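User: Run a structure prediction on this.
Assistant: Running it now.
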Amino acid sequence: MTAGRRSDEPSGYELRVDRHLDDRWGEWFGPLTLTREADGTTTLRGCLADQAALHGILCRIRDLGVILLSVRAIEVIDRQP
């Protein structure tokens, strides 16, 4: 955990999956933005409320049957109140 951050505060995440996801999945992944990369992967990036929300996203990726390549905690600068 990052010093100064409480475990119940929203956190930024970047997840990469091994295929291009259609825009129609955007709503299914809630607050995450989908970016199709030139290498054939999709990056999902944004702020999630807590670890339970992250696990929910991971379950959705599993349910789609796509390969999860990476999960990273990131700094989210543009948080809306």
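Residues 51-64 form the longest helix (14 residues).
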